[in-house]
Each structure stands twice: as structure tokens, then as C-alpha cells.
Inverse folding.
């Protein structure tokens, strides 16, 4: 029998510990809301301390960070409410801490990817339990309550949106999207096609239209035969229409509704947030209105004056805690210069000289994050960042073969030692 390597297990645990905290915090958002932000902050502190002890940093990242720091502190001091500025300012540290930690653990790509795929699969199979309980009419732990105390959960086309154990369909769809492309690129085991099928089905069951749309865009970009791509997608839609016409019609209506609400008619809080952003940019608001003043939960909690000053229309969604749009939140709070520097910090890993095959995954990660952030807070959500940006530096420094063959190689070595 192979001996259990306690030191290796302990080392792996220290690497994965902040990610464990982050995903426990996602569960605690429903079971114990006050504890959730505490766990997130603990994860950020852990990652920053770990990175500083590593004592090595990416030059481009540090360069942009140094220029952003004065604007960051100015934004907090300039805020209409110091408490709002500080509480929202912590969220600005999320991508910073993730990228610093990613560089500190840049030699642990195999551990991160294996843990990630296992985590996604656990969520995908756990969703079966969610469906069973939903069909049985049981009130599940992640259900919310409406104003009258009745259980409320997300549905689309008459089906419960898949959430797994992360309890949010957007995050569930996003992580299956990333898992699909990473598995497609770096796993060559016998069950590869099965894994890819599981990730695709789970992605579509999330009914996260942002992730589904991004998935199709990325497939189109990577597919060499564009005509063949349209033929396959067209055939799938025809099959779906014949098998489940009501479901496909309902999904189509949902897409049209969102296009009208966010773009053509603009009768939503999300569309309003972009109006405020473009007005501010047109007025050359270079350093913003202050951190915590617009878009985020602190701006709502502390009643930011920006909303009445800009005649912001919530369009009958007065119970929203955020505007669910990252870019207006960023550029209104820290201005054009601050916003641009902050995005350059997030994009700093691309300043490496990436091999073409690895850069395909970099494109997947950034396109997925940035498209999602058009209508969400993914670039300010530490769970989204942990499942995407944390892979970048380990991916660049990864010099091994595909994941499957490496694991097989290690198993073969252990078997020879035993013999």
C-alpha cells in the first residue's frame, strides 16, 4: 500500500484554503449572511499575506497598482460617506488579492485544475438533488423569501435554474463554462467526452444567458471551420425545436426581453447605470464621484446622493441591492483614469509573452469575465475571480503535459517503487 504523505496533503490544503473559505462564504450568504463577508475578508487577508511572504511579484501588475493606489485612497476619502467608501473599497481588493495569490502559487497549476474540476463536478451532480427536492416541493436552503415571506427561487422556461451548492445560477453557469474549455484543452483521459458533455448540459441548465452566449461566442472564435460551426449549432436548434418547442420558445422570449430591457428600450436599472456612466465620461469626470457612491451594495445601504443627483430610475426594482453592472460602478466611482488603471491591473497577466496554445485559455477567461461583467458584478465577485483569474499565472508557468498523462506518469512511478 502507498503511504499517505501528510506533508503533501498539508501543503495542498494551505494552497486551497482561501478558495475553501470563499466557497463556504457563498453558502453562508444564505445560511448565515453576517458571516459571509467575514469569510471573504479572511480569504483576502490570507492571500495577501501568503503573497507577501512569497516576496515575488509580476512587474506589470505592480506598475499599474502603484499608479492606482493614490486614486484608490482618494476615492475612499472623497466618498460621500467614509463607511461606504471603506466597505466598498474592500471589494476593489478582490481581483488584486487573487492575482497576487495566483503569482505566488504559479507552480501549482495541476493542483488548482484538478481541484477545480472536482469542485465543478460535485456541484453538477449535487444539482440532481436540487431538482429532486424542487419536484417534491421541498423548501431548499438556498431559496430566498419575497416580501410576504413566501419561498422564492429562480426559474426560467418553467425549470429551476441550476445552482449546485454555490447557490447562484450565474456562478454555476460561469464555472461550467470555464471547466469546459480547460478540460477540452488540458485533459486527455478516457472520460473526456463525458466530462465535456456534463459541463455543457450543466451550463445550459443554469439558464445563465450571459454564460451561454459567451460559450457560443468562444466556440465560434476557436472553431477553425466557421461554416461547420453554424451547421452544427443550427442542427442542434432544429433538434431542440422538434423535441422541446415550448422550452426553446420560452428561452427565445427571455433573450428578446433582456435585449429590449437592457439595450433597445433601456427600461431597467442596468441600462440606467450605463446612462450615468456615459454622462460622467462626457463630463470628463477623471477621478470619479468616490468609492461606494454608485452601483454597489454600499451605495444602496448608505443612500448615496448620486442616485437623486442623476435622476436614476430603478424601474420598479426598488429591492435591488446593486445595479448589477460592473463597468458603470467602476468608472462612476473612480473616474476614467482610475477605471482604466484598475482594468489594466486586472489585465496585467496578458503582458507576458504567452504561447499561442495557452493564450487561448487566457482569452476564454477574460472574454468570459468581461462579457459577464457587462450585466453583473463578476469582476467584483471574489468567487468568479477565484474560478478564473487564479489560473492565469499557474497556466503560464505550467510546463508539463496534459493533466491526465501527468497523473498517469506519477501513478506509474509510485507503482514501480512499490514493486
Amino acid at each position: 500500500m502507498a503511504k499517505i504523505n501528510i506533508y503533501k496533503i498539508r501543503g495542498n490544503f494551505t494552497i486551497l484554503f482561501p478558495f475553501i473559505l470563499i466557497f463556504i462564504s457563498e453558502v453562508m450568504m444564505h445560511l448565515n449572511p453576517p458571516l459571509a463577508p467575514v469569510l471573504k475578508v479572511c480569504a483576502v487577508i490570507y492571500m495577501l499575506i501568503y503573497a507577501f511572504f512569497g516576496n515575488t511579484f509580476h512587474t506589470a501588475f505592480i506598475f499599474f497598482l502603484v499608479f492606482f493606489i493614490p486614486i484608490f485612497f482618494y476615492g475612499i476619502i472623497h466618498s460621500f460617506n467614509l463607511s461606504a467608501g471603506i466597505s466598498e473599497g474592500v471589494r476593489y481588493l478582490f481581483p488584486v488579492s487573487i492575482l497576487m495569490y495566483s503569482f505566488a502559487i504559479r507552480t501549482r497549476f495541476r493542483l488548482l485544475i484538478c481541484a477545480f474540476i472536482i469542485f465543478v463536478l460535485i456541484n453538477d451532480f449535487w444539482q440532481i438533488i436540487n431538482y429532486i427536492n424542487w419536484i417534491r416541493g421541498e423548501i431548499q436552503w438556498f431559496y430566498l423569501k419575497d416580501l410576504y415571506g413566501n419561498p422564492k427561487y429562480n426559474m426560467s422556461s418553467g425549470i429551476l435554474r441550476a445552482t449546485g451548492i454555490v447557490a447562484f445560477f450565474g456562478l454555476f453557469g460561469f464555472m461550467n463554462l470555464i471547466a469546459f474549455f480547460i478540460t477540452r484543452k488540458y485533459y486527455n483521459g478516457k472520460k473526456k467526452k463525458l466530462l465535456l458533455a456534463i459541463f455543457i448540459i450543466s451550463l445550459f441548465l443554469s439558464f445563465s444567458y450571459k454564460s451561454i452566449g459567451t460559450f457560443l461566442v468562444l466556440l465560434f472564435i476557436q472553431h477553425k471551420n466557421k461554416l461547420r460551426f453554424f451547421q452544427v449549432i443550427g442542427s442542434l436548434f432544429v433538434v431542440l425545436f422538434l423535441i422541446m418547442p415550448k422550452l426553446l420558445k420560452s428561452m427565445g422570449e427571455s433573450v428578446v426581453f433582456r435585449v429590449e430591457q437592457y439595450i433597445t428600450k433601456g427600461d431597467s436599472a442596468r441600462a440606467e447605470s450605463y446612462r450615468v456612466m456615459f454622462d460622467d465620461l462626457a463630463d470628463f469626470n477623471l477621478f470619479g464621484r468616490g468609492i461606494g457612491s454608485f452601483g454597489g451594495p454600499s451605495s444602496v445601504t448608505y443612500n448615496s446622493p448620486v442616485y437623486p443627483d442623476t435622476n436614476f430610475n430603478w424601474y420598479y426594482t426598488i429591492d435591488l441591492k446593486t445595479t448589477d453592472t460592473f463597468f458603470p460602478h467602476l468608472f462612476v466611482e473612480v473616474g476614467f483614469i482610475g477605471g482604466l488603471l484598475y482594468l489594466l491591473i486586472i489585465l496585467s497577466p496578458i503582458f507576458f509573452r504567452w504561447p499561442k496554445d495557452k493564450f487561448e485559455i487566457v482569452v476564454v477567461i477574460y472574454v468570459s469575465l468581461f462579457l459577464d461583467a457587462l450585466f453583473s458584478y463578476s469582476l467584483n465577485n471574489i468567487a468568479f475571480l477565484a474560478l478564473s483569474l487564479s489560473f492565469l499565472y499557474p497556466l503560464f508557468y505550467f510546463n508539463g503535459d496534459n493533466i491526465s498523462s501527468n497523473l498517469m506518469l506519477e501513478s506509474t512511478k509510485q507503482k514501480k517503487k512499490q514493486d
Observations:
- Residues 109-135 form the longest helix (27 residues).
- DSSP finds 18 helices and four strands in the chain.
- The two ends are 11 Å apart (CA to CA).
- The longest strand covers residues 144-145.
